Amino acid sequence: MEIEKALNGTELTLKIIGRLDTVTAPELEACLKESLDGVANLVMDFAALDYISSAGLRVILQAQKTMNKQGDMLIKNVNETINEVFEMTGFVDILNIE
Amino acid sequence: MELTLALKNNIEEINRLHSFIEEVGEAFALPMKTVMNLNLVLEEAVTNVIMYAYPKEEHEYIHLTAKEQEGKLIFILTDSGKAFDPTQAPDADITLSADDRQIGGLGIFLIRKIMNEVKYERIDGKNVLTLEKEL
Fold first, then answer.
1. Which domain holds residue A90?
2. What Rg, from alpha-carbon coordinates, does chain A have?
3. Residues A74, A63: contact at Cβ < 8 Å?
4. Crossing angle of the two packed helices A80-88 and B106-114, in degrees rounded to 10
5. Going by DSSP bridges, is the β-strand pair B61-69/B72-79 parallel, antiparallel, or unpaired?
6. For chain A, what is the domain count?
């Protein structure tokens, strides 16, 4: 997995590339921990995300909880595979997906 | 036909697990969606063993067998770690809002949702988890 970060004022965009699983989720968790201070809009770009497991879902949920306190979070470019996982787990109802 | 995999007690082994599931998908000509769902299930089941059955023991092995029987794909996951029954873990409540949701519980929820049967047994000092999916 790779993470591309782009900060524009108080808007942070994270492009997640590859697989978000048990092995890689801690990297995203660490990245979020060090990056969210002062961020009002978090955009996660999943255009190049191939797979997400429950370990990845946990990190996304934690990010949503954090952003609910300090601004907004948007997930964009979700492919069909990832969207199925979001549907199975009810994440479609709690995330802002574009 | 039966495919087998031995994994060490190391989280990096999840990468080898995913390659194995791809092989299973090819061997049994499974649709892509099924392969992805099986990846979700087995990643969760194997991660549980690594985290809870063998904490801090580096060289223990986890064995996974995949076979087809009577129109069902059957996975049998075996380890010699301490007794751990993942089927006793509570499901996540997926109807709650983000703020009210617990961080855990999604893994076992996905296992139950995707597989048709999930059975845990403790046999001769081993954890044996049997996961069945109708084809």
1. 2-94
2. 12
3. no
4. 100
5. antiparallel
6. 1
Q: Does any CB of chain A come closer than 8 Å to the CB of residue B128?
A: no
Intra-chain end-to-end CA distance of chain A, in Å: 22
Contact A96, A71 (CB under 8 A): no
Quote the pLDDT of residue B57: 67
Of A53, A62, A65, nearest to B40 by CB-CB distance is: A53
CATH number of the domain where residue A56 is located: 3.30.750.24
- Over residues B56-93, the pLDDT tens digits come to 766 789 999 999 999 999 999 999 999 989 888 888 88
Distance of alpha carbon B37 from alpha carbon B41, whole angstroms: 6
- Contact by Cβ (8 Å): B5, B46: no
- Is the CB of B44 less than 8 angstroms away from the CB of A54? yes
Contact between A39 and A12 under an 8 Å Cβ cutoff? The reply is yes
Please answer yes or no on whether B103 and A22 come within 8 Å at the CB atom. Answer: no
Distance CA A16, CA A22 (A): 15
Q: What's the pTM?
A: 0.92
Q: What is the ipTM of this complex?
A: 0.89
Q: How many pairs of residues across A and B have Cβ atoms under 8 Å apart?
A: 59
- Is residue B61 a contact partner of residue B8, using CB atoms and an 8 Å limit? yes
From chain B, the residues in CB contact with A85 under 8 A are: 40
Token pair 């495919």 in the structure block, residue: B3
Residues 6+ apart with CB under 8 A from A73: A41, A42, A43, A44, A63, A64, A67, A95, A96
> Whole-angstrom Cα distance, residue B110 to residue B50?
18
